C-alpha cells in the first residue's frame, strides 16, 4: 500500500569545521524563516516565499538579483547527470548552477566507505567531473562535515537554494535532516528529491500501518503502485556559476590505495562512471538478459548484469533500468526481464528494511538470535577471508572478491553460509569484510543479505537449511570452470574432484600438481561435523530464555 505521508527526510550529527572562503561576500538571508517549499514545486514555493517577504515589506537584501544567485546541487550517492531530479530542478530554476561533492569524515553519521568503494569513488568522481563539464558545470570537491561544508559554500557563493537527492541510510538521513533545517533557518531554500529507489521507504506501509518484513508482499505492493516514472533527461542549457570557488584536488582525497596498490584487478574489471554504467546496461539488455532466469545462478558465466557497483554509486537508477527493459523488445515480458525486475526489487526491499531498522548492520533482525553462541575464531576468519578454507567453491568466491571487488551472488550465498554455519563466525564479521572489499558494498543490501543467509534476517531461509559447499559447487559449477579460474592451483584436477580435492586418489592429485596442505589447504572443517555443530548452536539459541 502506498501512502503519501510526509517527507521522511534527512538528519544528523555534524562534526569538523572548514574555514569559509568568501568570494561573493556573505549570503543574505531570506527574512521569511518559515519558508518551506513543497516536494513538487520548488520554484513555485520559492517564489511564494519571496512574495510573502515582499508583502511584509521586507525586500531581500541581495547584492545580486535572485535570478543571479546560484543554486547549489549536492552529489552524494547519485554520481550521474541523467535521471538526476536535483540537477533537473536546478536546471528548471534558470539559476547559475554549482555542483559539489563533499567527502565526509568518519564522524558524519554515514557509514565510512570501505577500501574498494573508495577506489571506485575516486574514478567515479573523475567521470562525473568530465560529464558535468560537457554541460558547462564545474564540480567543486570539498571534505568535512556535510552541513558545515555546505554552509561555507552557501556563504562563499551567495547561494540561496540548495538541492540534493535523498540518501536512505539512517546516519545520512539524520545528517541531511539537520542540514535541511539549518539551511532553512538561515533563509536558504533547501529541497531534497527522491533519490535512487523506485519506492520511497517512508510511504509504503502494510494494511495495518506497519512495514513489510517479507519480500513477496512487499514487491507485490510496489508493483501495485504507479508504474515507474520515465527517466529524466540530461539537463541542457545549464548556466554555469561565474564565481571562483576553491576546490580540493581529487588526489587530495586520498581514495586510491598506494602501498600496496591492490587495485590492479579492479582496474581490469570495471569502468566506474555513468558512461560505463550505461554501456553495461545496454550490453546486458541486448545479450544476457534473455537467459538471465536460468543463467544467473552459474558463477562461471557472465549471465548477470554486474550493475551493482553502478547502482551503489548512483551512476544509474532503477528507473533507467526499468525503462531499458521496456525498450528491450523480444524479452520485455519474458522470464529474463521478469526475474531481473524481481532481483532489482530485492535491493528495494533491503532499503525498506534498513529504513525501518536503522541498526540492520549491527543488530539481529530476529532478536531470537541474540543468544546465538558465535565462535571467536580469528584463524578460521582469516582462512575464509583469504580463500584458504579447503572448500574450492568458497575459496574461489573469496578470491574473486579480493581480486575484482565483486563476487557472484551464488558464491556470496555459499561463502556467507560457510562462515556463519560451518565456521560459526558471527555474520557481522563477514559483513564487515564484504563492506571493505566489495565495490558494490551497500548499506542496505549487504547487512540485509548477510542476515538473510545467517538465518536471523527478514524473510530468511530456515536456519537448518545448511548449504553443502561440495554439492553447491557440483550443481552450479559442474565443470569447475569458476573454480579453475580463481584457483589456478586446482586447474588441472578432473571435474569429478574439482569440488572435493581431498577425495581424489593420490595419483590423480600428483598428476594434477596438487599437494594438499602445501599447494592447496585441506578442508578446515568436516562438513558433517560442522553441520551438526551448527544445528546444536541453533538449538542453544532457540532454547535460551
Ligand atoms: C552475503 C551477501 C552480501 C551481499 N552484499 C551486497 C552488497 O553489499 N551490495 C549489493 O548491491 N548487493 C549485495 N548482495 C546481493 C547480490 O549478491 C548482488 O546485488 C549481485 O550479486 C550483484 O550482481 P549483479 O549486479 O550482476 O546482479 P543482477 O543479478 O544483475 O541483479 C541486478 C541488480 O539487482 C539487485 N540485486 C540482485 N540480487 C540482490 C539481492 N540478493 N539483494 C539486494 N539486491 C539485489 C542488485 O542491485 C543488482 O545489481 C549480497 C548478497 C549476499 C548473499
Give structural notes.
Belongs to the DNA photolyase family. It is an enzyme of class 4 (lyase). Its cofactor is FAD; (6R)-5,10-methylene-5,6,7,8-tetrahydrofolate. This protein is mainly α. The chain has 2 domains: 1-357, 3-Layer(aba) Sandwich (Rossmann fold); 367-539, DNA Cyclobutane Dipyrimidine Photolyase, subunit A, domain 3 (Orthogonal Bundle), CATH 1.10.579. Helices cover 44% and strands 6% of the residues. The chain is built from 22 helices and 6 strands. It has helices at residues 42-55, 85-93, 115-134, 146-157, 170-185, 215-224, 264-269, 274-286, 292-295, 308-312, 318-326, 335-356, 378-386, 392-404, 409-422, 427-437, 445-454, 469-476, 481-486, 495-498, 506-512, 527-543; strands spanning 71-75, 96-103, 139-143, 161-165, 189-193, 239-240. Strands 1, 2, 3, 4, 5 and 6 form a 6-stranded parallel β-sheet that branches. α2 links the parallel β1 (71-75) and β2 (96-103). α12 crosses α17, α15 (409-422) crosses α17 and α16 packs antiparallel against α17 (445-454). The longest helix is centred in the middle third of the chain and has 22 residues, at 335-356. The protein starts with 41 loop residues before the first helix and ends with a helix. Mean pLDDT is 87; it is low at 1-63. Bound molecules: flavin-adenine dinucleotide. Flavin-adenine dinucleotide (FAD) is lined by residues 296, 304-308, 311-312, 343-344, 346-347, 350, 409, 412-413, 416, 434, 438, 440-442, 445-446, 449-450, 453.
